C-alpha cells in the first residue's frame, strides 16, 4: 500500500467504483420496470455514436464523443419506440433489431474510416482500458494534497465522479415519483405524474451513466453493472431503499475485488501479466449474483423470506 | 458496380464464392430458427446465447494449445462455444425459474457475465504469449477473409442439421410458440420443446460465429423473422419467408462485402437485413406503415361523409372544410354545402338508417346485432331485409318525403 498503489491503482480503482455505482443506481429501477436490457442496447449503440463524433471532429476528444454516444442512445430509444409502435412488434424484438443494426453501422463506419492513427477500435469499446488510467504524478499519499500533482489526475476520474453525482442527484430528487411510477404506473398517472417523461428521463440518466462509464471502462462493465448488482440486491430484500443500498455495495465490491483479482490474481498463480480488469469486474459481479441467487433471503418469487 | 455484379454472380473467385454460399445457408437456417424464437416472444434470448459462446471458444483454444495443437481447429472451437452457450442457457433458465428475476434480467446477467469472463480469458491467452490468437478476435465480429473449404462445410453441415430438425419438429414447435398453455393441455412436453428451440438457436449461433461474429449473429436470428411477420399472418409462411429473407440478406451482404475493401461481412449482412426490414415496415400490406396510413385515411373519409350526410339530412350547415370537399368530390353536395339530388337521397337514407339503429339498440333481444353499431356500419350488413322492414313498421312512414 505504498506509493506504487497511489500511482498505479488508486485512480483506476476509484474510476471503477464510480462507474459501477453510477450504472447500478439507475439499474435498480430499470430492473424493476423490466427494462433491464435497455442498458445492453445503449452500450451497443454508443459505438456508432462515438465513431460518428470522431468522423465529424477528426479527433478523439472527450466532449464530442460523449455527445455522440448520448445522441446515439437517444436515437436508439426513439427508434425502438417507433418500430415497436409502428410495426406493432414486441419490445424485445424491436430492441434486437435496433441495437444490432446500429452496432453494425458503427462497425462499418469504423472499418471505412481511417482510424489507424488514433486509439479507436471495437475491442477498446468493448473492454475499455481501466488499467491504463494511471496517475503518473501521484507519487505517494502526499500527492493527494499536492495541487500540482492533482492537476494531472486522469480526466476520467473527475468526469466519472461528476456523472455519479448527477445520476445520484437525479434519483434522490425524483425518488418518490420514480418509486411510485415503477411499482404502479397506473396509480402514478392518476396522481398526475408524467410517467412517460419520467421513464424517458430515467433512460436518459442510464444513457449518461453508460456513456461516461463506457469511455473509461468499456461497454462490458456497463451492461454487467446495470443488471448484476441490482439483480443480486433484489434477492436480499423486499424494500426498494434497502435494495438500492445493497446494489451500491455489490457494485463497489465487484469493482474492488474485480480490479484486485485482475491486477494481482494472475501474479499469485504464477502468471506474468494482469488480465482484463473490465472483464474480471463483470465476472465478479456475476459471482455475487450467483451467491445471492443461491442464498439470498428474498430469492424466491413469492416474496416473503422462508421461516420468518 | 461491376465488381458488385460479379460478386452477386459468384465471379469473384473461390473464397468470395465460398463465403457467399456459406452465408446464404447460414441466413436461411437462422431466419427459420429465429422465427420460432420471435413467435415465442423470446427474441433476446439469442443475445445471451451468443455472448455466452465466448468463454467456451477461449477455453477450447487453451485446451488445444495445451495439448500442443495449433488452437485454430474450427470444429473444436465451435464445440467449446456450444458447451459454454449451453451452460449460459442453463443459468438463464435456472435464474428465471428459481428466483424472482424476470427473463430480461436473467438474459442481461448471463450475457454480461459470460462475455466479461470471456474477455478475461482472451487477455489470458494474449498474455500467455501464444501469439496466434488473432483468429479468436475474429469471433467477436466475424471474419470471412480466411474462410476455408472445411469451415464452409462445417457451416453447411450445421445449417442442414438445424433445418432437418426444424422440419421434423415444426408442428409442436409452432404450437408451443403460439400458445404454450394449450400445448401443455394437449400433452406436449413444453419445457422439452423449449429446450429444443434453444438448442437450435445455440446451433445456429455457433455455426454463425465464424461468418458474422457473436455480437451480430443476434441480428440474423431476429431481423428476418420480424420482417417476414409483416407480410403474412400464417405461421408456416412466416417461417419460409424468414428463411428466404435471411438467405437473401446474407448472400447479398456477403457479395457486397467481397466487392470492395473495408466492408466487414457481418456488419454488411446485418445492414442488408435491416434494409429489407425497413422496406417491409413501410410498404407491407396490412401491417405496414403505408397501409396503416391509407386505412386511416379511408376511415376518416367514411366518418366525414357519414357525418356530412346526417348534417345535410337535418338541414344543418357544414363548416368542416374537409367534409365539404369530400361531399363535393363524391357529387353529394355543391361546394357551397347545398345538397345535390343524389346527396339528398343518400342523406335521407343515412338519417333513416340512424333511426333504424336507434330502434335496434333499444331492443334487448337484438343485443348482439346492436353491439356492432359504430356509427359507420351499414345496417344491411347486420339485419335481413325482413328485419329491416319490421323496424321500418315501428318507425312508421316518413312524415316528410324528400
Compact description:
The complex is a heterodimer of chains A (308) and B (402). Chain A has helices at residues 3-32, 38-57, 62-86, 91-112, 122-127, 147-150, 156-173, 175-183, 185-190, 195-217, 219-234, 240-268, 277-295.
Q: Would you tell me the overall average pLDDT of chain A? A: 84
Biggest interface: chains and residue counts? A-B, 67 and 61 residues
* Overall SS class of chain A: mainly alpha
Q: How many H/I helices of chain B?
A: 17
Strand content of chain A: under 5%
Distance between the termini of chain A: 44 Å
Q: Number of DSSP strands of chain A? A: 0
DSSP strand count of chain B: 0
Based on CA atoms alone, the radius of gyration of chain A comes out at: 20 Å
Largest sheet of chain B: none
Question: Overview of this structure, please?
Answer:
Helices cover 74% and strands 0% of the residues of chain A. Chain A is mainly α. The termini of chain A are far apart. Helices cover 76% and strands 0% of the residues of chain B. Chain B has 17 helices and no strands. The radius of gyration of chain B is 31 Å and the shape is elongated. Classes of the chains: A mainly alpha (308), B mainly alpha (402). Chains A and B meet through helix 2, helix 4, helix 5, helix 11 and helix 13 of A and helix 5, helix 6, helix 7, helix 10 and helix 12 of B.
What is the fold's blueprint, element by element?
The complex is a heterodimer of chains A (308) and B (402).
Chain A: H1 3-32, H2 38-57, H3 62-86, H4 91-112, H5 122-127, H6 147-150, H7 156-173, H8 175-183, H9 185-190, H10 195-217, H11 219-234, H12 240-268, H13 277-295
Helix pairs in contact in A: 1-7, 1-10, 1-11, 1-12, 2-3, 2-4, 2-10, 2-11, 3-4, 3-10, 7-10, 10-11, 11-12, 11-13, 12-13
Chain B: H1 2-8, H2 14-39, H3 45-51, H4 53-66, H5 74-98, H6 103-127, H7 134-141, H8 149-178, H9 180-185, H10 190-231, H11 235-259, H12 265-283, H13 289-313, H14 321-329, H15 341-362, H16 367-370, H17 385-395
Helix pairs in contact in B: 1-11, 2-8, 2-10, 2-11, 3-5, 3-6, 3-10, 4-5, 4-6, 5-6, 5-10, 7-10, 8-10, 10-11, 10-12, 11-12, 13-14, 13-15, 15-17
